Amino acid sequence: MNSLKRTIVRILLLVIVAASGTSCGLFDSGTSWESDQFRIGWIDTHSTSDLSYRLDDYSSIGIVDACVFAAGANDQYVVVKQRPVSAPGIINYYVLSRVEYDPLGDLRRALTGPISEAAYRELSLRFSLPTVAPVVPEVVCGGETA
């Protein structure tokens, strides 16, 4: 009987060690991009990447839902490129005015989007918007491989 208990304990220990040694634990998360308090973060997989505003070390406010795969920023604007989880064939751009943004205020005052690439290009010429660069591989959002 003691031999059976020892075997069960060994198996349980192996399972626990194996589960804790994997790269994607229960609460795996990370930050792919940051500009001041703005960040693109993910939970469990990069396909959940979203734009948020960090209030402190433990809380943030969501701005643009997943799947955000590219971003850029300058002193006046934060721009992100997104493939919505519900429609990965679509690419949206969002432009956030840093001057107008109030984390506890009405987001609609500061955020323009979703807009098309053509609309982004037009706004970029008028307002000197930052260029966007990949922050996670687009393929994780349902995009084409490079």
TrEMBL record:
Natural source organism:
Luteimonas endophytica
Please name the PROSITE patterns in this protein's record. PROKAR_LIPOPROTEIN
Taxonomic superkingdom: Bacteria
Protein name per Swiss-Prot or TrEMBL? DUF3997 domain-containing protein
